[in-house]
């Protein structure tokens, strides 16, 4: 039996969380590590003269999430959805090789979910820079790791994470908008 398939609520949660954390850019740009990037953080084969529609970017994200989920599918047990989404976002952001070599993955393989959840915040470096330091120009990665940690531990729901990132309006925002 294969576990941790990317279907249903986990797929929708991963698309929402990772898509929001990555943002979208339809034209190539160089990320904080100097890597050419497009759409929701895609780097494979990106050149300076490309552009994609929102629909093409959505298809790339779904395909890429499926690829980055492969290490999680090789675990011999079902991850809770919040842990699965956090680990998949980590894999998407850093790559499957980084996930497979990480202590986070080692702990997941050992069924130590609580220990795995404490590993995200160790990954706060970009191109050798400590992103916790002021002026590092990569502080977004620190926020991302905090969100992954809180999702993993259950301290933060997907909805709350999206609200924190400004993706979902709060109930009071909705009520305010319709009452004007």
Automatic annotation (TrEMBL):
The keyword Hydrolase applies. It comes from the Bacteria. Keywords: Antimicrobial, Bacteriolytic enzyme, Glycosidase, Hydrolase. Gene3D superfamilies: 1.10.530.40. Its EC number is 3.2.1.17. InterPro entries: Bacteriophage_GH24, Endolysin_T4_type, Glyco_hydro_24, Lysozyme-like_dom_sf, Lysozyme_dom_sf. It catalyses: Hydrolysis of (1->4)-beta-linkages between N-acetylmuramic acid and N-acetyl-D-glucosamine residues in a peptidoglycan and between N-acetyl-D-glucosamine residues in chitodextrins. It is an enzyme of class 3 (hydrolase). Belongs to the glycosyl hydrolase 24 family. This is Lysozyme. It comes from Vibrio rhizosphaerae.
